[in-house]
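Sanity check

After download, print the first record. It should look like this:
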Amino acid sequence: MTRGSMRRLRGWMIVSVLAGLGWATVRAAEAARLPLEVQAPGDILCAPRLQLRHSRFCPSNGPGGLLAEQARHGQLPRPLPLVRLDPGLGHLPFHYRRVSSEGAKIYASASDAANKDDSYNALPAGFIYVSYDECQMVEGEAIYMIEPGAYIRGGSACSALAMPDFRGLTFNRTPDRPFGWILGTQETRRSPGSDQPSSGRTRYRTDVIQIYEERAVGAESWYRIGPDEWINQLHVARVEPDPRPPQGVEGGRWISINLFEQTLTAYQDGALVFATMTSTGLPGWWTQPGLFQVYSRLETDDMTGAFEADRSDYYLLEDVPWVMYFDKARALHGAYWHNGYGYPRSHGCVNLSPTDAHWLYDWSEDGTWVYVFDPSGKTPTDPEAYGSGGV
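Expected structure tokens:
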């Protein structure tokens, strides 16, 4: 037998062995769980590994066929290089409760509060959240001790404010491509454009996605986040990893805040180590673009103020956690009173989930650089447009 004949025989033997090992008929119950585009009842499917290594011997249907098609177009998903973020960072040694917008009377004892006997002070009207040490039921009334010797009434049951459960991502290296979070429930499209057919898949708020391609459709930008799956840029809080230090940053550690995307990233020694969604200043109370440094760090701080002449927008937020001041009264801090990260909500501060704020507090130090920018150019850059800022 010639050397060429031997090579061909060896090749057919390998194919026969691979076919025997990797080809199998998908059971109906298993096929029913597959996406419609990869269901092929009765067909022979290759195992994904066999499909990727020897796709010429395998049919194009099934999960393996889908992976092979993605690989041919350079679209094979690679997981983000994540490190587990300790969920215990979100624990706070306080309970919080919102007070009526009309304010609340303060009593010297729980029994006085239950009986509405002689209050000696009052919380003002406004946007008020208090922290409390304990709550007890007295004669059918929930009584909260907001500090020793200070009690307020609180309805027919003790109830603490639920803490936001969102948390960002930590990394062991810089991701290869842009990624982000879905801002709200959205049905994706098979092609870029709101008039294109549905992909049959729905993405939900805070889902983490990777961005494989960007395409303009008129004045809109669309992201491809999976095979034949596109979503409008407006529904994504995007992170574009950029480990190059901003001009003026000295040392290997800094925080970047993207006002347009409402995202925050942290870099150390030329690598992205943390990313999350944030809530920065609303129009008129913008978070000021520029380069700053953290000048004060506090585990908690009470924040209060008003911007209107009649103080109709007065606010008091007790024990705001993990506070890092960087621009006058503007700070990075945990925000327990909302879960709307990814959208502007503040009076200039950078709101983070308590978990994210705690991580950043532990990682940062006095003097850590904070770079705030708006790639859309819509945020004013004139310092005269800014006051001291607020929560």
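If your output differs, re-run the checksum step. Summary of this record's structure: Residues 3-72 form one domain.
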